[in-house]
C-alpha cells in the first residue's frame, strides 16, 4: 500500500521512474483487464447462476457444473474436438516440418520465397472464407475433390455430409490453414542452426538421416513443442470452420466444444451452461499450457546436457 | 529442360555429387508440388468466380469457364451454393 502511495506521489527520482514505468504499462493493463480478465471473471461468476433469457439470475452453486459435466452431448462434443485434434495436430506439425526442411534445402532464394509464400497464403485468409472454399471443393456432386478422385477409380464420397468423413475433412481444412504459419516458425529455427554442426557431422561421416536425428531435431525441439501447443490451442478452440461448413452436423458428428457453447448460449439462451463450458475450455487450455511451460525448461536442460 | 540440365551441371561443378544434385532437385520438386496443392483452392475459387451458375453446377465438372460474360456470372451465380437447402 505504501509502495503504491509512493508511486502515486513520488518524492525522489527512483519513485518518478517507477511511476513512469507504471504509466507506460497502464494502457496495456487496462486493455487486457477489460477485454480478457473482466469477461473471464464474469464467465466464471455466471457459471454459478441460472440465467433466464430476460436477465433474471438465480444462484445455483455447482448444480450447472453437475448438469453440464454429466451431459452426454457435452462429452460427445469433447470427443469430437479431441478427434479433430488427433487428426490435425500431428499432421500439421509433421507436414510443416517436412516442408520447412525442404524449403531450407532450396538454395535459390527467389524460388524459395515464392514457394514459402504459397504455403503461407492460407494463413492470411479468413477462416470463414477458407471454410467456404473447401465447402465447394468437398461438395459431393459439384466438388472438385470427388471429380479428381474419379480419375483414380475412387467412388464419390459425401465428405462433410458423412458421419465418418466429416471430422477428417474439417481437420484437413485446419491443416491447410495452419501449415504455412508452422512452416515459417520451423524455417526460421532451421536457419538459426549454425552450419558448423553440420560440417562437423560431415567430417565424422554422418548420413543425412543421422544429421536430422542427432542435430536438426534436437535443436528444433523447443520450436516443435511450441508449435504443438499453439496447434493444440487453435484446434481446441475450433469454431469458424465448423460453423461455416456443417454447423455441427451431420447428426452432431462435427459438434465441437465451442460450437456447442455457441449453440447453448445464443440458440438456447442458457448462458449459465455456456459459462460452465467456457470455464472448462479455459481450465483445460491453461493446464495444457502450464504443462508445456513446465516441459520446456526440461527440454532445454536435456539439450544442454546432451551437448 | 536445358535450363534444368545446365543448373544440374553448375551444381555438379560447385562440388556436389550427382546424387546430391538429384536429391536437391527431388526436394525442390516435392516442395513445389506441395505448394501447388496448397495454392489450388485459391485457383479454384478464382476460376469458380468466373463461371455462370449452370457452369458451376455442371456434371461432369467443368474446369474452365466457357463464357466471358460478367453480367451472366453476377446475375446467376448468386443463387448457386453447394448443399444450400434455402437457395
Q: Quick check: average pLDDT of chain A? A: 89
Rg result of chain A: 25 Å
Structural class of chain A: mainly alpha
Estimate the strand proportion of chain B: under 5%
CATH architecture of chain A: Orthogonal Bundle
The count of strands of chain B amounts to: 0
Which term fits the overall shape of chain B? rod-shaped
Detail the poorly predicted runs of chain B.
71-81
Give, in order, the helices and strands of chain B: HHHH
Which structural class do you get from the secondary structure elements of chain B?
Answer: mainly alpha
Number of domains of chain B: 1
Number of helices of chain B: 4
Helix-strand topology string of chain A: HHEEHHHHHHHHHHH
Q: Number of helix segments of chain A?
A: 13
* CATH class (first level) name of chain A: Mainly Alpha
Percent helix of chain A: over 70%
Overall description:
The complex is a heterodimer of chains A (307) and B (87). Chain A is mainly alpha-helical and 307 residues long. Chain A has one domain (65-306): Orthogonal Bundle (MetI-like fold), CATH 1.10.3720.10. Chain A is 75% helix and 2% strand. Chain A has a two-stranded antiparallel ribbon with strand order 1-2. Chain B has one domain (2-77). Chain B contains four helices and no strands. The N and C termini of chain B lie far apart (50 Å). Chain B has 87 residues and is mainly alpha-helical. Chain A binds chain B through residues 99, 102-103, 105-107, 111, 114-115, 118-119, 121-122, 130, 133-137, 139-144, 147, 160-161, 176, 179-180, and chain B through 24, 27-28, 30-32, 34-36, 38-39, 41-42, 44-45, 48, 56-61, 82-83.
Amino acid at each position: 500500500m505504501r509502495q503504491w502511495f509512493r508511486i502515486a506521489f513520488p518524492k525522489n527520482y527512483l519513485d518518478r521512474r517507477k511511476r513512469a514505468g507504471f504509466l507506460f504499462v497502464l494502457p496495456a493493463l487496462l486493455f487486457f483487464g477489460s477485454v480478457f480478465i473482466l469477461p473471464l471473471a464474469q464467465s466464471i461468476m455466471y457459471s454459478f447462476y441460472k440465467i433466464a433469457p430476460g436477465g433474471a439470475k438465480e444462484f445455483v452453486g455447482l448444480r450447472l457444473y453437475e448438469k453440464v459435466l454429466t451431459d452426454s452431448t457435452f462429452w460427445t462434443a469433447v470427443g469430437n474436438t479431441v478427434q479433430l485434434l488427433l487428426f490435425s495436430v500431428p499432421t500439421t506439425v509433421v507436414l510443416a516440418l517436412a516442408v520447412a526442411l525442404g524449403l531450407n534445402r532450396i538454395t535459390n532464394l527467389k524460388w524459395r520465397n515464392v514457394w514459402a509464400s504459397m504455403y503461407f497464403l492460407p494463413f492470411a485468409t479468413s477462416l470463414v472464407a477458407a471454410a467456404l472454399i473447401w465447402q465447394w471443393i468437398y461438395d459431393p456432386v459439384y466438388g472438385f475433390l470427388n471429380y479428381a478422385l474419379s480419375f483414380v477409380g475412387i467412388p464419390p464420397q459425401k465428405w462433410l455430409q458423412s458421419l465418418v468423413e466429416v471430422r477428417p475433412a474439417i481437420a484437413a481444412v485446419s491443416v491447410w490453414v495452419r501449415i504455412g504459419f508452422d512452416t515459417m516458425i520451423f524455417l526460421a529455427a532451421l536457419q538459426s542452426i549454425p552450419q558448423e554442426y553440420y560440417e562437423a557431422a560431415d567430417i565424422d561421416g554422418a548420413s543425412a538421416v543421422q544429421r536430422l536425428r542427432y542435430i536438426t531435431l534436437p535443436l528444433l525441439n523447443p520450436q516443435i513443442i511450441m508449435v504443438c501447443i499453439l496447434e493444440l490451442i487453435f484446434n481446441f478452440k475450433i469454431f469458424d470452420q465448423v460453423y461455416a461448413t456443417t454447423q455441427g452436423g451431420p447428426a452432431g458428428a462435427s459438434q465441437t466444444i465451442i460450437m456447442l457453447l455457441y449453440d447453448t448460449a445464443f440458440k438456447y439462451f442458457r448462458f449459465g451452461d455456456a459459462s460452465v463450458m467456457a470455464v472448462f475450455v479455459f481450465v483445460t487450455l491453461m493446464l495444457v499450457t502450464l504443462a508445456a511451460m513446465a516441459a520446456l525448461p526440461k527440454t532445454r536442460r536435456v539439450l544442454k546436457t546432451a551437448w | 529442360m536445358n535450363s534444368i540440365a545446365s543448373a544440374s551441371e553448375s551444381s555438379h561443378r560447385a562440388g556436389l555429387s550427382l546424387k546430391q544434385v538429384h536429391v536437391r532437385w527431388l526436394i525442390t520438386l516435392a516442395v513445389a508440388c506441395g505448394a501447388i496443392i496448397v495454392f489450388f483452392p485459391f485457383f479454384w475459387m478464382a476460376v469458380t468466380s468466373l463461371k455462370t451458375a449452370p457452369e458451376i453446377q455442371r456434371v461432369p465438372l467443368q474446369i474452365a469457364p466457357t463464357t466471358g460474360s460478367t453480367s451472366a456470372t453476377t446475375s446467376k451465380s448468386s443463387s448457386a451454393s453447394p448443399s444450400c437447402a434455402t437457395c
